[in-house]
Specification:
By secondary structure, the protein is an alpha/beta fold. It has 13 helices and eleven strands.
Length: 311
């Protein structure tokens, strides 16, 4: 057994040095997060490993979008699987601001004022549905002239290219995914404003199609050709499941880190610890893995900062 060590913080200490002490602290989530940082750095250093990154859309409404954007810009990920709302928030914030709010706000009063509350983020109608309809429909018209059928991977790259002339394009996840040719898959593409805009477009363009099976074909090629695979999974839901679902076909992930606030006892995928995936063959029996309980808006920036220090 290893003894519990006290954490001593030195002036001018690097984030990676502090988190390295977490791994020796032997205490609660700090211990788990220290383990996660070690696994993450090993995964990043493994040149044979295809690195999957999954996350829910909600965090893209926060400043965490900047961390994800930098991770894509600096090529710390190879494949992204996320939800439709990621495109909603990533594109909307390209043109309009979201605002700092508070959890205890009067939601009825906000509704009267045309302000949507996402946790403690305020999203005015002008900054969401209205601006997205104004900007997305012309982009779809241009894409439709190129071809009538698109996979979500192709659409994300096409939107990333379409916004390249915007003043704040370099703040966009979609822009850097296109720029660095990092595939982004959205298995639930109609569950958000981005998908709703495509449905609206479909009303007058009946031969416009989203080909989800092409996405699955592209994912199969990535998975079957991977010598090793690892995943950083934020939260759960469809984005997490699509990562582990596909990796079962290569006998499971070699590395896995999940950060989640969900409990395990309700049987939800968001709450399921990484160890549960071993029983399904979605994680290898000898995989290096950890589930860290906590808020990704706090933990992801720390994990990324530590990775940059180590790199």
């Amino acid at each position: 057994m290893k003894p519990v060590k006290d954490i001593r913080i030195e002036k001018g200490e690097k984030v990676s040095e502090l988190i390295g002490k977490f791994g020796e602290a032997g205490g609660f989530v700090a211990q788990k997060f220290g383990d996660a940082a070690k696994i993450y750095n090993e995964m990043l250093a493994d040149k044979e490993c295809v690195k999957f990154f999954s996350f829910p859309a909600c965090i893209v409404s926060t400043g965490t979008r900047g961390v994800i954007c930098d991770m894509v810009k600096n090529k710390l990920v190879d494949v992204i699987i996320t939800t439709c709302g990621t495109m909603d928030h990533d594109l909307a914030r390209l043109w309009k601001d979201y605002y700092q709010g508070y959890f205890e706000a009067d939601d009825a009063e906000l509704h009267k004022k045309g302000i949507n509350r996402l946790g403690n983020v305020f999203v005015p109608n002008d900054s969401y549905g209205i601006i997205l309809e104004k900007k997305i429909q012309p982009i779809l018209e241009r894409l439709y002239k190129q071809k009538k059928e698109w996979s979500t991977k192709e659409l994300v790259w096409a939107f990333g290219e379409a916004i390249k002339g915007e003043p704040s394009a370099e703040n966009s996840i979609a822009y850097w995914a296109w720029k660095n040719k990092i595939p982004v898959f959205i298995p639930g593409p109609t569950d958000g404003s981005w998908g709703a805009q495509m449905w609206m477009f479909y009303q007058t363009h009946r031969d416009f199609k989203i080909n989800l099976l092409q996405d699955e074909e592209d994912l199969s090629e990535i998975v079957f050709n991977a010598k090793k695979s690892g995943a950083l999974m934020l939260g759960g839901g469809i984005s997490k499941h699509h990562v582990i679902w596909w990796n079962q076909f290569r006998n499971g992930l070699d590395y896995a880190i999940q950060i989640s606030t969900a409990p395990e006892w309700d049987g939800s995928l968001s709450g399921a610890r990484t160890r549960e995936a071993i029983s399904w063959g979605k994680l290898r029996e000898k995989a290096k893995h950890v589930t860290v309980e906590g808020d990704v808006t706090v933990l992801l920036p720390l994990l990324y900062a530590a990775a940059l220090d180590s790199k």
